[in-house]
Amino acid sequence: MAKKQVVEQVPTDFLAAHQQEIAAHPDSIVAFVDKGWSHLSRGEYDQALEAFGQAASLDSHSIDAQYGLGAAARLKGDKDRAIGAFQRAVEISEAGTDAIKGTMMGRMARWSLRELHK
Q1: Exposed, middle or buried by CB within 10 Å (0-12, 13-18, 19+), for 117?
Q2: Domains and CATH numbers, the chain
Q3: pTM to 2 decimals?
Protein backbone atom coordinates (compact mmCIF):
# COMPACT_ATOMS: atom_id res chain seq x y z
CA MET A 1 0.00 0.00 0.00
CA ALA A 2 1.46 3.37 -1.04
CA LYS A 3 1.92 6.06 1.56
CA LYS A 4 -0.07 9.20 1.07
CA GLN A 5 2.17 12.25 0.73
CA VAL A 6 1.28 15.06 3.09
CA VAL A 7 2.10 18.58 1.97
CA GLU A 8 1.99 21.30 4.57
CA GLN A 9 0.30 24.49 3.46
CA VAL A 10 2.55 27.50 3.94
CA PRO A 11 0.91 30.92 4.13
CA THR A 12 1.69 32.99 1.07
CA ASP A 13 0.61 36.30 2.55
CA PHE A 14 2.97 36.78 5.46
CA LEU A 15 1.81 40.35 6.05
CA ALA A 16 -1.74 39.14 6.61
CA ALA A 17 -0.42 36.54 9.04
CA HIS A 18 1.53 39.23 10.93
CA GLN A 19 -1.55 41.46 11.03
CA GLN A 20 -3.57 38.60 12.51
CA GLU A 21 -0.87 38.00 15.12
CA ILE A 22 -0.77 41.71 15.99
CA ALA A 23 -4.58 41.84 16.24
CA ALA A 24 -4.53 38.87 18.62
CA HIS A 25 -1.47 40.12 20.55
CA PRO A 26 -1.08 43.90 20.13
CA ASP A 27 1.92 43.93 22.48
CA SER A 28 3.87 41.32 20.49
CA ILE A 29 7.27 42.76 19.69
CA VAL A 30 8.08 39.69 17.59
CA ALA A 31 4.99 40.19 15.41
CA PHE A 32 5.92 43.82 14.70
CA VAL A 33 9.54 42.90 13.95
CA ASP A 34 8.41 40.12 11.62
CA LYS A 35 6.00 42.52 9.94
CA GLY A 36 8.87 44.98 9.48
CA TRP A 37 11.03 42.36 7.77
CA SER A 38 8.14 41.39 5.51
CA HIS A 39 7.66 45.01 4.45
CA LEU A 40 11.40 45.46 4.00
CA SER A 41 11.61 42.40 1.75
CA ARG A 42 8.95 44.00 -0.45
CA GLY A 43 10.78 47.33 -0.64
CA GLU A 44 8.13 49.04 1.50
CA TYR A 45 10.56 51.08 3.58
CA ASP A 46 8.11 53.47 5.25
CA GLN A 47 5.89 50.60 6.39
CA ALA A 48 8.96 48.69 7.59
CA LEU A 49 10.12 51.71 9.58
CA GLU A 50 6.66 52.02 11.10
CA ALA A 51 6.55 48.34 12.14
CA PHE A 52 10.09 48.34 13.56
CA GLY A 53 9.32 51.64 15.31
CA GLN A 54 6.24 50.12 16.93
CA ALA A 55 8.34 47.19 18.15
CA ALA A 56 10.94 49.59 19.54
CA SER A 57 8.24 51.59 21.32
CA LEU A 58 7.02 48.39 22.97
CA ASP A 59 10.56 47.49 24.08
CA SER A 60 13.31 50.09 23.83
CA HIS A 61 15.87 47.33 24.50
CA SER A 62 14.84 45.18 21.51
CA ILE A 63 17.99 44.68 19.47
CA ASP A 64 15.86 43.16 16.70
CA ALA A 65 13.74 46.31 16.45
CA GLN A 66 16.76 48.63 16.46
CA TYR A 67 18.63 46.60 13.87
CA GLY A 68 15.51 46.49 11.71
CA LEU A 69 15.11 50.27 12.02
CA GLY A 70 18.71 50.68 10.92
CA ALA A 71 18.34 48.34 7.96
CA ALA A 72 15.13 50.00 6.76
CA ALA A 73 16.51 53.51 7.19
CA ARG A 74 19.70 52.56 5.35
CA LEU A 75 17.79 51.13 2.41
CA LYS A 76 15.52 54.17 2.34
CA GLY A 77 18.61 56.40 2.20
CA ASP A 78 18.17 57.99 5.64
CA LYS A 79 21.81 57.69 6.73
CA ASP A 80 21.47 59.63 9.99
CA ARG A 81 18.53 57.56 11.18
CA ALA A 82 20.31 54.35 10.17
CA ILE A 83 23.44 55.32 12.09
CA GLY A 84 21.39 56.16 15.19
CA ALA A 85 19.53 52.85 15.10
CA PHE A 86 22.67 50.78 14.48
CA GLN A 87 24.47 52.61 17.31
CA ARG A 88 21.55 51.81 19.62
CA ALA A 89 21.70 48.16 18.51
CA VAL A 90 25.41 48.07 19.39
CA GLU A 91 24.67 49.59 22.83
CA ILE A 92 21.95 47.00 23.45
CA SER A 93 24.25 44.17 22.32
CA GLU A 94 26.93 45.25 24.79
CA ALA A 95 24.49 45.47 27.70
CA GLY A 96 22.33 42.48 26.80
CA THR A 97 21.78 39.25 28.63
CA ASP A 98 21.58 37.08 25.49
CA ALA A 99 25.30 36.79 24.78
CA ILE A 100 25.07 34.84 21.53
CA LYS A 101 22.35 36.94 19.95
CA GLY A 102 23.88 40.14 21.28
CA THR A 103 27.26 39.29 19.83
CA MET A 104 25.82 38.39 16.44
CA MET A 105 23.53 41.42 16.17
CA GLY A 106 26.24 43.70 17.55
CA ARG A 107 28.70 42.53 14.89
CA MET A 108 26.13 43.05 12.14
CA ALA A 109 25.33 46.54 13.44
CA ARG A 110 29.03 47.46 13.71
CA TRP A 111 29.63 46.27 10.14
CA SER A 112 26.67 48.35 8.95
CA LEU A 113 28.02 51.40 10.79
CA ARG A 114 31.44 50.98 9.12
CA GLU A 115 29.74 50.77 5.73
CA LEU A 116 27.70 53.89 6.41
CA HIS A 117 30.78 55.85 7.46
CA LYS A 118 32.68 55.07 4.22
Answers
A1: exposed
A2: 23-116 (1.25.40.10)
A3: 0.74
